[in-house]
Amino acid sequence: MNVSTLLAHRSTLVAVVAIVVLAIVPFQLGPYDNGRITIIFVFAIAILGLNLIAGYTGQLSVAQSFFLGIGGYGSALLLDRVGVPSLLCIPLSGLLCLIVGGLIAIPVLRLRGFYLMVVTLALTFLLSPLLKRFPELTGGAEGLSVSTPTPLGGLYDDQWIYLVSLVVAAILFWAARNLVRSQYGPAMIAIREREIVAEAVGVDASRIKTQAFAIASMYAGIAGSLYVFAIGYASPDSFGMHLGLLLFAGAFIGGIATIPGAIIGAAFVQLVPQYASNINDSFTSVIFGAAIILAVRFFPDGLAGLGRDAIARFRRKPADAPGHPTSTIPAAGSAVREATPRKERASS
Amino acid sequence: MTDLLQLLVSGLASGSIYGALALAIVFVFRSTGVVNFSQGELAMISTFVTLGLYKAGAPLVIAIIGSMVISFVLGAAIERVLIRPVQGRSEHAPSIITLGLFLGLSGIAGWIWGLDPETFPGMFPERSLEVGSVRLSYTSLGIIAVLLATVAVLYVFFERTRLGLMMKAAASNPATSRLAGVPVSRLLMCGWGVASAVGALAGALIAQSVYVSPSMMVAVIIYALAAAALGGLSSPVGAVVGGWIIGVAEAVVSDRVGFIGGDLKIVVPLVIIFAVLLVKPTGLFGAKEVSRV
Predict the structure, then answer these.
(1) For chain B (length 293 residues), average pLDDT per consecutive 10?
(2) Sequential DSSP letters for A255-323
(3) A148: which DSSP letter?
(4) Which residues from A are below 8 Å from B37, CB to CB?
(5) Which residues neighbour B270 within 8 Å (Cβ) at sequence distance 6 or greater?
(6) What confidence tens digit (pLDDT) does each residue in B54-89 have?
(7) What is the number of H-type helices and E-type strands within chain B?
């Protein structure tokens, strides 16, 4: 393998190094910090799903927290009531949300823009009363306590769930990257930019939108499953409108329609409230509100886009420098770039 | 039968509250083409301002009018500073900004006024009127009356005044209107201002039945958005009728359908939006939307 091939696989290299470093981290930190980083992985998975449906396909859904809740409760129930092994609960709740998301998507995605936002916002209001309505199943307002998966090989609980979340997140990031680089990527972007034109050139818009929504829900479901394992309980009020809006804001702050943006956005959603609450309980909302407004206005590719521009400027490569054709939708520029097949760059 | 009539009345009263806020949403949409998700939070801030003026010694009516003026300025400023720069960038950018405002304004209110609920002075006598066996409280009647008066004023404004017509023109086709000498930018600001003033009035009505707190609008806004969507987003009459339909449906369903009860009544607007939009995507009173390729 010569240097140029290595460079062509730069992002893969970066990812592998990052995963190795992150895999060492839990043995250096205490349970508290491990728990915090685990939740960043969890939110990153949920935001990644949101990037696929909102960023790439352009269907703005605020309902990611709803599916996080379905996945979380699904896992808790599968574990406690059915006795499914905990590691199997994770893909099963993903599957559950894939199905539920797909079913909800069929009517919901007939709605456009604003209507879609209203209905998905209403879904986030629905979850908590719905869960409390069946207390014998869901534990009502008390919620359900969930036993952490039994660790392998003498690991502590927090290290184990950390590593499981890391592996799951890595797989899902890899899958999302491949998805947007496949023929689906350009099809999703075409739907976002001009749905009628996309259909005219043969993109089956309603099928792809439904699939993207189902996949986004699956990501949220898996995230919800990991979330309840990491926290140790499922509470009906953890997955409401507030989390939905924070994840939505996190996606835009990190960089909607960018894959690395999901991690940055997740870190924002996890870390900012902890520091903000030192100042005032309401400060989190102020920061998120201000950040999403600033992001949409001044850096539509999010913090990930800012970072990329800074690196490009540092390297003085005019082709990547800022000033790329601005698109009609935040972050479309980066999305198209992400969707460009890697082969072209490798061969040049 | 009496029970059903009683439900109808209480449904109309709460529906009028949704309709009042929906009216503000429709006003912004009509004058700027943006759906303002933060309309409820803006109205909440206005309500705090009203309460502040009232506590400072102003009579309630003066406090409400004062708050409407302040809200007008606030709304116009938000349009100018936050919405205008991203308008035209994408179809969704302004809506995302208003979602940011939704979060930000609730945070700011919590920061300034704290999270403890406060009571709002009653605007109407606390008695009720007995018609047959149905009890009509003056508060419900008053809310409905204020709402109808507001719609009437807005209707006359949009259909009969030069300013209103110019605003309609500015929203539906800014470029052409500008060529025809319509001061489009100022009118867009004006649209947000008037909507916020209507929101301030809606806030005072809503505060007749809920405590004043930063979260007072969180539940109401979903119903108001549903009412606006039901009425077709661009019709003030539609917003009010939409609010009534949702209010009555909510009252009847939560009373009669045991499974839904008081807890799950959020299902009602959800189902209604679905049903209407799937059958008639433009809402009950909306104009047909033509999509350009």
Answers:
(1) 80 91 89 87 95 93 95 94 85 88 92 89 82 81 90 86 85 83 86 92 90 88 89 85 92 79 78 78 67 52
(2) -TT-HHHHHHHHHHHHHHHHHHHHH-TTHHHHHHHHHHHHHHHH-TTHHHHHHHHHHHHHHT-TTTSS-
(3) P
(4) 117, 121
(5) A119, A122, A123, A126, B226
(6) 999 999 999 999 999 999 999 999 999 999 888 877
(7) 11, 2
Q: Which residues of A touch B93 (CB under 8 A)?
A: 296, 330
At B137, is the secondary structure helix, strand, or coil?
strand
Backbone angles phi, psi at A70, to 5 degrees: -60, -45
CA pair distance B103, A293, nearest whole angstrom = 10
Q: What DSSP state is assigned to residue A328?
A: S
Beta strands in chain A (DSSP E): 144-145, 233-234
Mean pLDDT on A330-344: 42
CB B260, CB B268: distance < 8 Å: yes
Taking residue B132's Cβ as centre, other Cβ atoms within 10 Å add up to: 7
Contact criterion met (CB below 8 Å) for B198 and B146? no
- Which tokens hold the place of B234? 């661009």
Which of A126, A133, A292 has the CB atom closest to B99's CB atom?
Answer: A292
- In this prediction, residues A219-225 reach a mean pLDDT of 96
C-alpha B163/C-alpha A71 separation (Å) is: 52
All residues of chain A having their beta carbon less than 8 Å from the beta carbon of residue B110 are: 280-282, 285
Contact A286 B267 (CB under 8 A): no
Contact (CB, 8 A) for A133 and A234: no
CB atoms within 10 A of CB B254: 19
Gap between the Cα atoms of A269 and A248, Å rounded: 10
* Gyration radius from chain B CA atoms: 19
Residue with tokens 């529906």: B15
Ramachandran angles phi, psi of B193, nearest 5°: -65, -50
Among the partner-chain residues B35, B108, B274, the one whose CB lies closest to the CB of A114 is B35
- Single-letter residue type at A88: L
Residue where the block lists tokens 């699939």: A211
| Predicted ipTM of the assembly | 0.86
Tell me, what amino acid is at A200? A
Where are chain A's structural domains? 3-347
Does A249 reach chain B within 8 Å, measured CB to CB? yes
Query: In this complex, do B105 and A289 lie within 8 Å of one another by their Cβ atoms?
Result: yes
**Rounded-to-integer distance, Cα A108 and Cα A120, Å:** 8
How far is Cα A247 from Cα A61, in angstroms, rounded to an integer?
Answer: 10
The pLDDT tens digits for A157-216 are: 888 899 999 999 999 999 998 998 898 888 899 888 888 888 888 888 889 999 999 999
Give the closest residue to A189 by CA, choosing from A61, A340, A296.
A340
Query: What is the number of helices (H) and of strands (E) in chain A?
Result: 17, 2
DSSP string across A212-246: HHHHHHHHHHHHHHHHHHHHSEE-GGGGSHHHHHH
